[in-house]
Amino acid sequence: MADAVTVGVNLDAFSHAISGIQALRSSVTRVFESLKDGMKNCEIDLTDREKKNCELDQIEREKKNCELEQIERQKKFITEFQDNLQAVNRDLNELERLSGLVGRPSESHPLHNSGLLSLDPVQDKTPLYSQLLQAYKWSNKLQYHAGLASSLLNQQSLKRSANQLGPSAKRRPKVQPSTLVLPLQYVDDVIARIGRMFPDMTIELFRPNGTSAVLLVTLGKVLKAIVVMRSLFIDRTVVRGFNENVYTKDGKLDIWTKSQYQVFQKVTDHATTALLHYQLPQMPDVVVRSFMTWLRSYIKLFQSSCQRCGHFLQDGLPPTWRDFRTLEAFHDTCRM
């Protein structure tokens, strides 16, 4: 009784309620079983020989007896079905009465660790779930791309493990990649040939660190581009206006400062996209020539109209995008 007072639940009524649930289930089961069995019709099954031997009046009497028996069965079935429904109603009323006697738990019942749920932070201030979901998505993407990279590397004929190389291969000197380490004279000749291809483009070559080349490309009186190269591979490009300063206070090329004009910031972003598009490691000179051809298409940056909408300005900017194949001009939003 002390537990019932502390908890706030009448345990005796609770036990009787469980028994009431079982009784209700049993009565409901009987109802469905009676409906499943139904009521069988009385049929006379006589063979051909019996039909010949029996007289017609006997057959008529059998039919009447069968009809009377059928009526009795119907009455019996309806009576049993009504009794079963009354039993269900009686058990349901008893269960409702017992549920009212069970009571409800007292609010003073100790909640232990579950009482700390009210101390959880607000979702808006601590978006833990959204962060976990984002981490899960990135994990799946990382696993997918790692699988693709693994399948591509396994297709290569080169063996990257020292254990798989024979003794003769271990003594063989390592050959440096020819596309990464190129003679300086070869790089200078490639840049000079590209400069002679475009008369309206001036290319100046600097080597501030001795080997790496930095190009200062002046395109007419429109813009100046600083192209940072590693051998014949272009690392990054910064585009500024023609009247902007491209040197630092100590007289060196400023390869980090962005342009103060939004139009040339857009061109810088598009140039970075072009560097990712023109990729041919086996022929780096073709990549540099293709990029310079694409950059030269900005000679009419402020004179060309958009090939899609036909306007010269959109949101105060000229068409800053140039197609990689046709070199046609588009606004940044019209190229989609």
Automatic annotation (TrEMBL):
It is found in: Nucleus. Belongs to the Mediator complex subunit 27 family. One of its GO terms (cellular component) is mediator complex. GO terms for molecular function: transcription coactivator activity. Signal peptide: none annotated. It holds the Pfam family Med27. Transmembrane segments: none annotated. One of its GO terms (biological process) is regulation of transcription by RNA polymerase II. This is Mediator complex subunit 27. Residues 49-98 form a coiled coil. Keywords: Coiled coil, Nucleus, Transcription, Transcription regulation. The gene is MED27.
